[in-house]
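C-alpha cells in:
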C-alpha cells in the first residue's frame, strides 16, 4: 500500500521548530530567511526580498558586506577573546578610531544595546554623586514617554509600554518620565537638583519612528547644560549614518561641547550586523567615574568585535553611506507622499534619512477581517519586500544604507503596488 505523506515546506518546518522549542517572546512575520547580500535577503524557498528592516537598523552596511566577512574570518583565525584581564592588540586602536570619529575623549565597549544603556545609566548616577553632589541614593534619570532603550529590568523600569513592563516588577527606582518633544516639560523636570541625566532617543524608533521638532534636541541639550545635567543620546537605532548624519542628535561638523550630547550610546550598526558590539562615548571628566572593578563585561572590547567595528565604520565613510541615506531618504519620502495624497487610509510619512515610517488607518473589511499594518506587511512580503509593522497602524521602512537609487525606486514601486492592492 502506498504510504501517505504530507509535504511540509521548509518554511513551515522552520516555523514549527521555533514555535515548538523557542520562547514566544516575538511575533515574527511568517518568512524564513536563509541568506542575504547587500539590500536583499532570500528565504529558504529561494524567494528574494528587499530587506526594509535591516535587523532594526543594525545592517546599515548591507548583509554580509565582503569587507566585514573578510575581517571577521581573518580575526577569527587569529584571536577572538582575551577578556579585559589583559590588554589586546586591537582594542586601543578601535577606541581611538571611535573617539576621533565621533569627537569624544573616551569610550567604554560593551556588546548589546541594552548593556550599553545600562552602562550609561551607571555612569550618569556615579557622576551625579561624585561631580554634581547629589545625596547618596537619590540620583534621578529623566526619560521620555514612549521610550525604547532595551529589555533589562532597569530599562523596562523606565518604559511606558505596558507590554514591556507588565508582570516584571518590582522595578528599579530612580527614573522619571517626561513628555517627548516637549521642552517646557523637560525644563520643569530639570529643576530638580537630584536629576543627573536626561536619556533620550533623537527619533523614537520603536514608538513608530516618532520624529520630534527639528529644534527639540538642540534645545534639550542646552536646557540640560544649563542645569548641570548630562544629556545622553541613545543613538543605537538612529546613529551611524541611518538618518543621513553620523549621529542624529548633532550635525557632523559640530565640535562645540556646549552643543553636543555629554554621552552617546551606540550599538547595532557599529558592527554592521556581524556581531554584538556596543559602546558608550563621553568626556574624560564623565567617563572618569569608572575605576577598575566598577564595571565590565567578559566579551566587551574583544578583538573580534573591535576589528569588525573599525571596518564597519570605515565602510560607512568609504561608501558615502551618510550621503546616500540623506539623498535616498528624501527620494523615499517624496514617493511615499504621493501615496499619502492618493489614498485616504495612508495618513502620513515621517522620518529622517533612511529611517522612515508610513502611518495608515487600520480598518476592517466588510466581512469583519482586520486590515492593519500587519496585513499590509504580509502583502509587501508577497510582493518581495520585508518590513515590520508596529502599533497596528505604523510600518517602519529602514533599508540597508548601501541600497542604490535604482533599487530604492523598485522598492517604492513594490510599496505602491501593495498599497493599491490593500486599498
Ligand atoms: C533606541 C534603542 N535603544 C536600545 C535598544 C536595545 O538594543 P539591544 O536590542 O541590542 O539590546 C534598541 C533596540 O532596538 C533601540 O532601538
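Residues out:
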Amino acid at each position: 500500500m502506498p504510504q501517505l505523506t504530507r509535504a511540509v515546506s521548509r518554511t513551515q518546518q522552520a516555523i514549527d521548530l521555533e514555535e515548538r522549542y523557542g520562547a514566544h517572546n516575538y511575533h515574527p512575520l511568517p518568512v524564513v530567511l536563509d541568506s542575504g547580500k547587500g539590500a536583499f535577503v532570500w528565504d529558504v524557498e529561494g524567494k528574494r526580498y528587499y530587506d526594509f528592516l535591516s535587523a532594526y537598523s543594525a545592517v546599515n552596511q548591507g548583509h554580509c558586506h565582503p569587507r566585514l566577512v573578510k575581517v571577521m574570518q581573518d580575526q577569527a583565525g587569529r584571536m577572538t577573546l582575551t577578556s579585559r584581564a589583559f590588554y589586546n592588540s586591537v582594542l586601543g586602536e578601535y577606541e581611538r578610531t571611535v573617539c576621533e570619529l565621533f569627537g569624544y575623549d573616551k569610550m567604554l565597549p560593551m556588546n548589546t544595546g541594552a548593556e550599553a544603556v545600562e552602562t550609561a545609566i551607571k555612569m550618569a548616577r556615579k557622576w551625579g554623586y561624585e561631580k554634581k553632589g547629589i545625596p547618596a541614593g537619590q540620583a534621578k534619570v529623566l526619560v521620555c514617554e514612549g521610550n525604547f532603550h532595551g529589555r533589562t529590568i532597569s530599562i523596562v523600569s523606565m518604559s511606558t509600554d505596558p507590554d514591556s513592563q507588565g508582570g516584571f516588577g518590582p522595578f528599579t527606582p530612580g527614573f522619571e518620565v517626561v513628555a517627548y518633544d516637549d521642552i517646557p516639560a523637560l525644563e520643569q523636570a530639570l529643576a530638580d537638583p537630584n536629576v543627573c541625566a536626561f536619556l533620550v532617543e533623537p527619533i523614537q524608533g520603536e514608538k513608530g519612528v516618532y520624529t520630534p521638532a527639528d529644534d527639540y534636541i538642540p534645545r534639550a541639550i542646552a536646557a540640560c547644560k544649563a542645569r548641570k545635567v548630562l544629556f545622553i543620546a541613545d543613538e543605537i537605532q538612529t546613529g551611524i549614518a541611518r538618518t543621513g548624519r553620523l549621529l542624529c542628535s548633532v550635525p557632523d561638523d559640530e565640535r562645540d561641547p556646549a552643543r553636543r550630547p555629554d554621552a552617546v550610546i551606540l550599538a547595532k550598526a557599529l558592527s554592521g550586523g556581524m556581531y554584538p558590539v556596543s559602546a558608550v562615548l563621553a568626556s574624560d571628566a564623565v567617563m572618569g567615574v569608572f575605576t577598575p572593578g566598577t564595571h565590565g563585561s567578559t566579551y566587551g572590547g574583544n578583538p573580534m568585535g573591535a576589528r569588525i567595528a573599525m571596518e564597519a565604520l570605515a565602510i560607512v565613510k568609504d561608501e558615502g553611506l551618510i550621503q546616500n541615506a540623506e539623498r535616498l531618504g528624501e527620494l523615499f519620502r517624496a514617493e511615499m507622499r504621493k501615496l499619502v495624497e492618493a489614498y485616504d487610509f495612508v495618513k502620513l510619512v515621517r522620518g529622517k534619512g533612511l529611517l522612515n515610517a508610513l502611518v495608515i488607518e487600520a480598518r476592517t473589511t466588510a466581512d469583519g477581517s482586520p486590515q492593519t499594518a500587519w496585513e499590509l506587511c504580509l502583502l509587501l512580503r508577497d510582493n518581495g519586500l520585508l518590513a515590520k509593522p508596529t502599533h497596528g497602524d505604523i510600518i517602519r521602512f529602514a533599508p540597508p544604507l548601501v541600497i542604490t537609487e535604482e533599487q530604492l525606486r523598485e522598492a517604492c514601486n513594490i510599496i505602491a503596488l501593495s498599497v493599491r492592492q490593500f486599498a
